[in-house]
UniProtKB/TrEMBL annotation:
It catalyses: L-threonyl-[protein] + ATP = O-phospho-L-threonyl-[protein] + ADP + H(+); L-seryl-[protein] + ATP = O-phospho-L-seryl-[protein] + ADP + H(+). Belongs to the protein kinase superfamily. CAMK Ser/Thr protein kinase family. SNF1 subfamily. Keywords: ATP-binding, Kinase, Nucleotide-binding, Serine/threonine-protein kinase, Transferase. This is non-specific serine/threonine protein kinase.
Length: 446
């Protein structure tokens, strides 16, 4: 019965969609997903926006034609794409929920990126400010590092394959041309020539084998250049001329690019893969670590929404304020109503100077075995963001002055940061603040 229903659905799809822009409204796949609109058309099929019949959650459904895949000899590619997407679990990679199939089609049910393609974001604005480009680039590198750690090489990174969710976060998609370590030949290299012409690495064009990780980073460099310049570094109507430019590394920086950005791009677009920058080196790069991080702005905005506006100047507190603040000792977290999200916020009062607090945060981080990175922030009275070795945001330490002598130390950790941020606060930083408070005779209720 189910098979007959699925075949009926395929017949309905074939008769309903007479042109590529028509919406197959009301068509339900497998009794589970109602198709809403056509998102795009690829070589082997179409991608639809759909909603779950049970949960009403938006999903993307990629319908792949079995005949086109088999006739084109791409069955192995599809199988590999499925296996790769099933093993990749990262906040900046499109999530594959399930794979369904009928006699003629394979359906990928995936996470829906409501923000569309990053390409459209750049096209609408001409080019992005460096802070905005840095936000997307950091997420891209985080996703690619995750892929490479699992032996997966994307091989088709481009603006078209970088999507945005409803919150504006980047999502890497389309692993149809990806390779895995099992495809590496005895010489330690990949040899399949693939990718999009303007984004392909020069060593791939040389047809002598290439390192998939280094080829991906070249493509990341092209993406970063396009984000900040508004155009591709290598482009020409004549493909032979285009490849010659790529092979020679012939491109020019626009005048508005900062010196640090130019330096990073010159290392990403290094035609010699042996000297090209690595992921670990990117995490140490000056431009990569400078400027304001959009993730910080999100967290600070959430904190301000919960706690209200903070005065820029010190305000004196009356006796009632002090009784309230110290009614539970140094911990004043209960005075604020946190949001219903997964983020955790804790606050204490300290008579230690902000500079000494920040020095203490850096000292505690330096003593961490796994190496917590502290990046100081100047806005909102001071503080820092805490990052793991992989660049993931573990949490924020934010300082707000209550009086000339007292400072609120606020620690916000996110579920995405795992237990590291919470442990940093509970096991390391908070005990030290309490210890210093007792040494400086900070009034604490008994």
């Amino acid at each position: 019965m189910r098979e007959a229903q699925n075949d009926a659905v395929e017949t309905e799809l074939a008769t309903t969609i007479t042109n590529e822009d028509e919406v197959p409204s009301g068509v339900v796949l497998f009794g589970k997903y109602e198709l809403r609109s056509l998102l795009g058309v690829g070589a082997f099929g179409k991608v639809y926006h759909a909603t779950s019949v049970d949960t009403r959650q938006s999903v993307a459904v990629k319908a792949v034609s079995k005949s086109k895949v088999l006739n084109g000899g791409f069955a192995a590619n599809v199988e590999r794409e499925i296996s790769i997407m099933r093993c990749l679990h990262h906040s900046n990679i499109i999530n594959l929920y399930e794979v369904l199939a009928t006699k003629t089609k394979i359906y990928f049910v995936m996470e829906f990126a409501a923000g569309g393609e990053l390409f459209d974001e750049v096209s609408s604005k001409g080019r992005l400010p460096e802070d905005a480009a840095r936000f997307y680039f950091r997420q891209l590198i985080s996703a690619i590092k995750h892929c490479h750690s699992l032996g997966v090489f994307h091989r088709d990174l481009k603006l078209d394959n970088l999507l945005l969710d409803e919150n504006g976060n980047l999502k890497v998609s389309d692993f149809g041309l990806s390779a895995v370590t099992g495809q590496i030949r005895p010489d330690g290299l990949l040899h399949t020539i693939c990718g999009t012409p303007s984004y392909v690495a020069p060593e791939i064009l040389a047809k002598k084998g290439y390192d998939g990780a280094k080829a991906d980073l070249w493509s990341c460099g092209v993406v970063l250049f396009a984000l900040t310049a508004g155009y591709l570094p290598f482009n020409d109507y004549n493909v032979s001329v285009l490849y010659r430019k790529i092979y020679r590394g012939q491109f020019r920086f626009p005048g508005w690019m900062s010196h640090d950005l130019r330096f990073l791009l010159s290392r990403l677009l290094d035609t010699n893969p042996e000297t090209r920058i690595t992921v670990d080196e990117i995490y140490q790069d000056t431009w990569f670590n400078s400027g304001e991080c959009w993730s910080d702005r999100v967290l600070v905005k959430e904190i301000d929404k919960v706690c209200g506006e903070r005065p820029t100047e010190c305000e004196s507190l009356n006796a009632f304020d002090f009784i309230s603040f110290f009614s539970t000792g140094l911990d004043i977290s209960g005075l604020f109503e946190d949001s219903n999200g997964s983020d955790s916020v804790e606050r204490v009062i300290s008579a230690v100077t902000p500079e000494r607090i920040m020095t203490m945060v850096e000292a505690v981080a330096a003593a961490e075995e796994e190496g917590t990175v502290v990046v100081r922030r100047e806005e909102s009275g001071g503080g820092a963001k805490l990052e793991g070795q992989d660049g993931n945001l573990l949490g924020l330490v934010v300082l707000y002055r209550l009086t000339d002598e007292l400072v609120v130390v606020e620690m916000k950790t996110s579920e995405k940061g795992g237990e590291s941020g919470s442990q940093f606060w509970k096991d390391k930083l908070r005990p030290l603040l309490y210890q210093l408070a007792s040494q400086q005779e900070l009034p604490v209720s008994q």
